[in-house]
Design goal:
289 residues, two-stranded antiparallel ribbon, homodimer, mainly alpha
Chain lengths: 289, 289
């Protein structure tokens, strides 16, 4: 097994173990919402965000285990955003990661509350992290800033309002940078911050921004050429949205994914350990799910 | 003007000034959600929670101004919970504080996002508070713990699941303690915590619990005897819910409000400054909105 895969497996094991311990206390009169939260949280995502947090902590000279709770808080926020995005009043999606969406199983009201519960639990997790108070506060600022109306929530608003409109390149990039990019930026920056390193925060942000753009363009491509079974969700769902594929065409998008990936890798120059992050970026270029 | 009123006016002025500075940056491509957030946040609530946070900080020997951001974070969480509770899939309410509810004005999707944005902004506000890092982390733990599935969100779940069922006294009390009580507890405890006092946290929690119970029983009474114009919302909305009035009758409820208020006042014994908190509790007994 490659060093990359060994390290990745170690990270994934730590994340799954951490997340699977959440929300299963007994007795719980509110157990329905706890089940709904666990249903989506343990549905087997790529765990890209916590992996980035842990590896950037290591790359910046820190102990990756200390970054685990911060990465898992991010995964809770990512999960809540998917639950709310899938709601009938939003994207109205029936499947996610090969399973019926949260509101399909638990109903709309419970899905709203499961999302609210996960978002709040993310900050409980930050508060309980075993790290110096200054680190916790710095990470709290990064996380809440990127997840809120200046970041992910704001991006979702642009996405909703952009439906059935022709957005230009600048608008699509802004939408993407807020909706998807902001959480990736939080992932990378919290890792560096947990290591107590403020100097290389900008480099981590540059990696995150380029990776996020490559990731989103690849996502738009997969909506056209992807395989429903591998993706675990319907394809062709972006027909009423402005996408990079519609704007630039498939060939140019393939080149842009490559270019942004190269930019991400170049941003890693200030870090001594950069093999894992380089391979992670390169693997995302050709991913099929 | 009484000392009570002077102090209350000072607190309310500080809260309104703080909240009205939020979410109005320009230019803002996501301005719709910012408007939706401000619509509900500045709709003129009682600001009971931030007032409690500031006064408990003062009562515990601290500077009340330092508690202002923590109190305002609580008000953001209270406001988000009202927006989500009013949604068609939840309580489906059309009016709140005399105005159309958030989703009636901005649509369901934007109301979900405005709630998500306010919840996240509450934690941004905590992160930006001008207080020692240890204080910020302690308040973060209190706030996120009380607002999440162990507290307010959990209580909303019990409320939803309890509709059209006959709950017993223990179940109604638990529901109330989680849905309404938890945020009041956070308000009082964050005040004491901001003053750097850990010894009187329990006393603050006792005051909050008794006040919260009195407040909720009075709320149930107002749903029957209240005046729609003064309340700013429809009455008789609890017909399908288990309430204290249905369980104990109106006379017994009146006596319970008095008893719980007395308990709240008794819990203030360890604090030197207790006139304001005593009067606040006594005024809530007879409130008509």
């Amino acid at each position: 097994m490659s060093d990359y895969q060994k390290r990745m497996d170690g990270y994934l094991e730590a994340v799954e173990a951490f997340l699977s311990r959440q929300f299963e206390w007994e007795p719980a009169p509110q157990k329905t919402v706890l089940q709904a939260m666990r249903y989506s949280l343990l549905a087997g995502g790529k765990r890209l965000r916590p992996v980035l947090t842990m590896e950037f902590c290591r790359a910046a000279g820190g102990d990756w285990q200390q970054a685990l709770p911060f990465g898992c808080a991010l995964e809770m926020i990512h999960t809540y955003s998917l639950i709310h995005d899938d709601l009938p009043c939003m994207d109205n999606d029936d499947y996610r990661r090969g399973k019926p969406t949260n509101h399909k199983v638990f109903g709309e009201a419970m899905a709203v509350l499961a999302g609210d519960g996960l978002l709040t639990a993310a900050f409980e997790t930050v508060a309980a992290a075993d790290a110096p108070a200054e680190t916790v506060v710095r990470n709290l600022a990064i996380l809440s800033g990127c997840a809120g109306v200046r970041g992910m929530v704001g991006g979702q608003v642009l996405d909703l309002e952009g439906e059935d409109k022709a957005l230009d390149a600048g608008q699509i990039r802004l939408l993407q940078a807020m909706k998807t990019g902001a959480l990736l930026r939080a992932a990378c920056c919290m890792g560096v911050s947990t290591a107590g390193d403020r100097e290389r925060m900008d480099a981590a942000a540059q990696y995150a921004d380029a990776l996020g753009l490559a990731f989103q363009i690849r996502d738009d491509m997969l909506d056209v050429i992807g395989d429903r079974a591998k993706l675990g969700k319907a394809t062709g769902m972006d027909a009423h949205k402005s996408t990079f594929v519609r704007l630039y065409g498939m060939d140019a998008c393939g080149r842009m994914v490559r270019e942004e990936t190269d930019k991400a890798v170049a941003a890693l120059a200030p870090f001594a350990h950069r093999d894992f992050l380089t391979e992670l970026a390169n693997r995302l270029v050709d991913r099929d799910h």
